[in-house]
Amino acid sequence: MKATKIRDDIYWVGAIDWSVRNFHGYETGRGSTYNAYLILDEKITLIDATKKTFSDEILSRISSIIDPAKIDYIVCNHLEADHSGSLDIIAQKCPNATIFVSQPNGLKNIAKFCGEHTYQGVKAGDSINIGKRTLKFVPVPMLHWPDSMVTYCPEEKILFSNDGFGQHLATNERFDDEVDYAVLMHEAKKYYANILMLYGRQAQTALKTVSTLDIDMILTGHGISWRKHIKDILDLYAKWSNFEADEHKAVVVFDSMWNSTEIMAKTITEAFQAKGICAKFFDLKTNHYSDIMTEVLDSKYIAVGSPTLNNGMMQNVAAFLCYLKGLVPKKNDRQALAFGSYGWGGQSIALVQKELEEAGLNIFHDMIRIANQPTQEELDNIYTSIIEKL
Ligand code: FEO
Asked: Where in the numbering of this chain does the Flavodoxin-like domain appear (predicted)?
């Protein structure tokens, strides 16, 4: 397999994972890539690596340019196994290389990922000279792990951003001006929502630092890199990291056993629409929660419904709420509603509301509980009551 030239003496040597559809629970319908970069300078430098299962692919791409044994430096911006999984195999091929990781969080854990080797910890402001070029290290803790950092090359005006600004998108193209813009932006949003949504405060800190850098290219760790639409993606990260809600967007999420909760969901959706709020309708039997979180990222209203099953909520709804609670920043202005039907007992609706409250959402309407099938009068009451509250 061949390397892709990015610029003179800078190559993409990563891997394309066309088939991955589950990335620790996030449904990656368009696959992904694990991006790594090779810089040919006085010190030959590899920036990041791939999943272990792509060790042969990255080594093959490196070998299309140089003998891997000639690598002097390896920069490991982030230890998660999608970037570091192949490092131990690569390190065996270049025994004289020094591996640079963040200090303290990268340095204290790297041996668990890469075994015995020569490591050097780097902190904010540290840099190394690799010949005609300099590499400056910028910690970005929690984007996406405590060890995460980005690497900036001022001579090239390139930011190697690792997880930041990435997308799970498998393509042979490497840059934002080579792919469909709408698909790219959708996948960038889905990636932020499902990987980084919780870390908005840390993202804002990182953005402040990045905004001081003169950048011609952002070479990402996943998917497409940025050279034409850099301002667009930085502006979107500023908005997403602030968890800004669109007052004209809502999501209605539910599961249903015998259609009663589904009819309630349709009625709630129509009430939102009647107030000019675009409501997206998500049946959890046919929609993955990672797609729903993409809409949650900028929706002001979140309605969640479950019938009562075995004294609790349906399992799909419980899984969605667990995921939501993990990703949503605790301080937020989102407005929520719990609803559902029941045959007897009816515990699920209060349980859904409790989860929404624990996620930090604000309840804008009393929970809606309907015994058995809703009558037309009950549906009309739901419709009217929600409109009054919006
Ligand atoms: Fe792409 Fe946090 O790893």
From this structure: 250-390
